[in-house]
Amino acid sequence: MKLKMIAAFYCMLFCGGLAAQSNLQLASPDGKIVFSFSLQKNKPQYAVAFNKQALIKNASLNLVFDDGKPFESCVIKSAPAFSNGIERYKLVVGKTAAVDQPYKKAVIFLHGANYDVNMEVKAFNDGIAFRYVFPEQKNKSTFTLIEEQTQFNLAGDPVVKALLLPNFTTSHEGLYTTSAFSNIQNDTLMDMPALFQFPNHTFIAITEAALLDYAGMYLIKRNGILTSQLSPLPTPLVDGKIKVKAKLPHQSPWRVLLIGDRIGALIESNILTSLSPACAIKETGWIKTGTTTFPWWNGTIIPDTNFAVGNNFETNKYYIDFCAANNVLYHTVVEANGHEWYTNDGDGYQPGNNFDVTKPVGWLDMKQVCDYAKSKGVGVRVWVHWKALYPKLDTAFAIFEKWGLSGMMVDFMDRDDQAMVNIQTEILEKAAKHHLHIQFHGAYKPTGLSRMYPNEFTREGTLNYECDKWNDLVTPDADLNIVFTRMLAGSTDYHLGGFRAFGMPGLNGKGAFKVQNTRPLVMGTRCHMLAMYVVLENYQGMLCDYPEAYIGQPGFEVLQHIPTTWDETQVLDAKIDAYVSIARRKGNDWYIGTISNHDSRELDVNLIFLPAGKYTATVYNDAADVNINSNHLAKEIKQVDNSMQLKITVSQGGGNVIILNKN
To answer: How confident is the model at residue 5, as a pLDDT?
Structure first.
C-alpha cells in the first residue's frame, strides 16, 4: 500500500508538469543514504547524501549518441516505478558464502531528442547504484554511443586515493596518488575503484558493476567536476571516437558508489556481486579454488639434479611432488629459460609469426604432465598470451580439456574497451564449457561477475610482488593502498609467497631489500607476507617461491592450509595509510590478518565477533629481533573466547596472523 501511494504521488507530481522543480528521492532501507533525482531545464541531474551530509550534488547525467542530439534535453515519459526487495543468493567463490542484502529500487522513464532511456536506481544500506537502460525504440534496432557523461560532482574537497593513468591502454599497474581533490589537475584520467574521504569519517568508493558488452569506465576531472570517461574502441575497429555499439534493448553497467562511515564497511560490501546476473554455469561442482605454484617468479629454481631445468617433465614433476606433499592444489606451467611452454617464435612473450598454444615445445608432453599430476591429486594450469589463445579459442580449450588441464592465466589484455570486454566474457563462457578456470593478468578491475562466472578465480590489475624482480616500488605502504582501492572491486592477484623478506629500503640497513630477478626478495616481514593471504581477497592464491624456500621454514604451515574462498568477512579495525585487520571465516574456523605500513604499532584485536565457545588461537607475530632478520617470527598458542582481547605488536612493514580453531 505504501509503495502504491508513493507511485501515485509521483504520478501527480511529474504528470502535472512539476518535474523541473521537484525531486524524486529514493532512500536506502535503513534511511541513511538518500538518492535525489530531478530535471533542471530538461537536464537530468542527481544528488547523494549520507546521514544528511551531502556527498554528490547537482551532478548531471548525459549520453552522447552518434545522431549529435544531446540526450540531456529530455522529459519524463511516465510516473517512476518503485519497488523493494532482497538480493538473496549463494556464491561459489567469494569473500562470503551467502548474501542476504535488502534494497529499494526506482525506475525513471526518460525521453530524449531521439532515444528513450530508463534510469534504474538501487539503494542499499552500504551504497547507491544506477545504470542506463536502453529499451526497444521505434525505427531503431541498434545504437552507437560516442560518450557517457555521468558526473560525480563531489561536495566539498574530499581526499582522493586513486591510480592516475596516462591513457586507456594499461595493465592498471602503478602507485596510487593521495591528494585533495582540488589538487588533481583537470583532464587527469583516474582508474576505478577510486576512494574519496569526506569529513565526519565518511567514505565513498566509485566503481562499476556488471561490465558486459560495454566500454570500461574511468573517472576524469573536467572543469573541476569528476566525470565518467569510457574507454574507446581501438582505431583498427573504428576512428577512436566510438565507445559503444550495441543492439537494442541493452543496458550500461551499474555506476556504483560504495558508502560508509567506516572504511571497513566498503571492504565488507557485497554490492558488486548483488548487481551481477545470477550464476550462468549450471553445474559448478568442478570449480575448486586453491593455491598454486608460479615458477616464473622465482626463476623456475630446482635443486642440483641430473636433469636440466626447463619446461620438461622432470622439472614439472619436481614442482608437482612439492604440491602433493604440501596441500598446494595447483601447479602452473609458465615458461622456463626464457621460452613459453608452447610453440612461439616471438620475442618478449608476444606471439610471433609462428605460434600455436595447442602445440607444446618439442621436449614437453603436456598430457604426461597432467596425467602424473592427476595421480598425485594436483591440478595443472598454464600461462598463455591472450593473442596466442584467442584465435584458436574453441580448438585450444577442447585440447586443453583432453590433456587434463584445470585452468590458465590469460595475460597481456591491457585494454577494457567494449571489444576486449566481450573477448574476456567469451573466454569465461567457453572455458566453463570445458571445465577450465581463468585468471586474468594485465586486466581491468573485477565488476562482480565472479557471481555469474565463478570459473573466474582472480584478476591482476595491480602493481604487485612480481615487480620485486626489477624495482623496489611495492612496499608495505603500497600493499595497504591496494586494500583500500583495487581490492574493493574483488579478487586481487598479487604474486604472494616470497619467503625471503629483507625489510624496506631506508629502514632496515643490514640485509636490506635489493632487486634481483632470480630468487627475488620481498619487502616487509615474513609475518606481513603471511597476513596478506588473509587480508587480500583472492580465490587463486599463489606460492610464487621455489619449493626449497618453503620447506622447513617457520610460517609455511599457514600457507599449507590457508583457504582461498570464505564463508564470512569482517573488518575488525582499519585506518587508511596506516593498518588494516580483517577476519575471515571458513566453516567454524576464523583467520585474522593484520598488516601495517612503514610504522610499528601495538593493536588490540577484540574477539567479540566470535560465536560463543572456546577456540584454540595460533598467533604468528613479528619476532623481537625482526629488525635484524625480517624473516623471524614468534608463534604462540593459547585458549580464547569472545570475551577477550589479544594485544599484538606489528613491526615496521610487519604483520600478524591469528588462526582460531573451534574446540
So the answer is: 35
DSSP 444: P
pLDDT digits (tens, 9 = 90+) for 281-324: 999 999 999 999 999 999 999 998 888 888 999 999 999 999 99
Topology of 462-663 in CATH?
A: TIM Barrel (3.20.20)
**Cell (9 digits) for 497:** 609467497
**DSSP state at residue 522:** B
- On the CB side of 499, CA atoms within 13 Å amount to 19
Alpha-carbon gap, residue 279 to 91, rounded angstroms? 8
Same fold yes or no, 278-290+298-441 and 462-663: yes
Amino acid at 348: G
Question: What pLDDT shows up at residue 238?
Answer: 63
Cβ 256 vs Cβ 207: under 8 Å: yes
Predicted model pTM: 0.95
CATH class of 278-290+298-441: alpha beta
How much is the pLDDT for 659?
98
Residue 341 near residue 311 (C-beta atoms within 8 A): yes
Give the amino acid at 216: G
Residue-range domain boundaries for the chain: 2-274, 278-290+298-441, 462-663
The string over 271-290, giving b where at least 16 C-beta atoms fall within 10 Å of a residue's C-beta and e elsewhere, is: bbbbbbeebbbeeeeebbbb
Query: In CATH, what number does 2-274 get?
Result: 2.70.98.10
CB atoms < 10 A from the CB of 590, how many?
A: 25
pLDDT of 506: 56
Q: Which long-range contacts (CB under 8 A, 24 or more apart) does 468-473 make?
A: 468/498, 468/513, 468/515, 468/520, 468/521, 468/522, 468/523, 469/297, 469/515, 469/516, 469/517, 469/520, 470/515, 470/517, 471/515, 472/505, 472/513, 472/514, 472/515, 472/523, 473/175
- Computed on alpha carbons and rounded to an integer, the radius of gyration of the chain in Å comes to 25
Q: How many CB atoms lie within 10 A of CB 404?
A: 16
Structural contact between residues 421 and 234, judged by C-beta atoms closer than 8 angstroms:
no
Query: What is the pLDDT confidence band of residue 188, given thresholds at 50, 70 and 90?
Result: very high
pLDDT tens track for 590-617: 999 999 999 999 999 999 999 999 999 9
In 3D, which of 582, 214, 239 has the Cα closest to residue 421?
Answer: 214
Give the other-Cβ count within 10 Å of 43's Cβ: 16
Residue 426 · residue 465 · CB < 8 Å:
no
The whole-number pLDDT of residue 6 equals 38
